[in-house]
Amino acid sequence: MTDQPSVETKQELVVEPAPHITGPMSKTRLMTYTFGALLAITIITAVLWWPVNEPVPKVVTTLKLTNYWVMPLGAVVLINALIAVGLAVGADALAHLIHRKSPLNTMSAAVFGLIVTLSYSLGIPTMATGDPTPADFLVAPTAFLYVAIISLLGLIIFKKLQGLVGRKWVNPAATAKLIVLAPFVSSVFLVKDHYAAYATAGYGGLSVPLLGGPIGWGTAAMQYLDPVRGNGAASFGYFLFGCFSSPTSTAAYSTAGYNPNALINLMILAKFHGWTGGASSLAVIVVGIALFILARNYIKWRVTLAYFVSIVVGSLILASIYADQNMLMRLIFEVFIGSSIFLGFFMATDPATTPFTGTGQIIFGVGLGFLTVLIQTYMNFFGGSILALVIMNLTVPVLDRIGVHKPFGR
């Protein structure tokens, strides 16, 4: 038998961007399942946050319009979701009309819109609720504008255009958020600067106790009161409770109203500030595991498992190095802060920007976890996982070469 020349045309050799799914699970069905999971988390967060009203922005306070833009925080979540999903789906359809080579992926665009919504920070730290000048990015109506910009930029530039060139190098939602909010890094990403009026003696905002040292419970002086002792020792738990508890609660202001067990419940059950998708860590875990079971063999669970294991190991190592007063506290913070828990289940497993091989996925998850711990510890960047994700995305071309089976024969 003689070898016959290949007769495939150039067009026949073109494939669509990842994910490439074979078998009973189609890409549309997988995206539908994922959309349902994200929608469930969106609704849960809206319900949890509905009793909390937004504070009045500075301009409104100045004009004495006391009831203007005061709405339930849960309503802001739902409006953000409508804006992000609507713009993402609309931009996807428009791109398909303009450029036929751009595939119409309605469900994928809808999933992207919800990820933008749930990875956006909302809410006001409890210890700063008395201040009338919150960071505009955390409240309506400014939050609506930035969610819209992130959704459009991420969908058009980092999702559609990346797909057309053949490979998505970075997570679209994470990269778009970092780029759009980068000019305001000190007032958006760093929790200590969410409230400029709390800047005393040059230490800034909420004066987050440093994680690069021993951390514990109690009410020791914060940085702006005592730069020497305000390094986290005996004050980090107090800060977390004051940052994430409900603004309607007075527990954060009373030494009798909070304790380590209350902090564990807060971080796992319901936080009222930070990433929308991480408001309830328990809800993310339950919904995330349900999605993994429903779409088994089609979601990169190795990344998620390796990610959380490495976070636990990294937290325990730092807790030992710095001789934390309470080793559990650093672990609870690193694992259950909203950005870490949501990203681990719903962003780190993105099929297009994570490794294909099982070995590569494990290495990716380990690197992501340790980077997250290091960034949050030494940069005071409570959403450090999003930066870690983009960094690890850039290693995927190398990781894809690890664990690939060599072909037998020709």
Give your account of this protein's structure:
This protein is mostly helical. The protein has a single domain (20-399), classed as Ammonium transporter fold (Orthogonal Bundle), CATH 1.10.3430. Helices cover 52% and strands 1% of the residues. It is built from 16 helices and two strands. The protein has helices at 27-49, 58-63, 73-98, 106-118, 142-164, 172-181, 185-188, 236-244, 260-269, 281-294, 301-321, 327-336, 338-346, 358-378, 384-393, 396-399; strands spanning 121-122, 274-275. Strands 1-2 form a two-stranded antiparallel sheet. Helix 1 (27-49) packs parallel to helix 4 (106-118), helix 3 packs antiparallel against helix 4 and helix 11 (301-321) runs antiparallel to helix 12. Residues 6-14, 58-68 and 220-230 have low confidence and may be disordered.
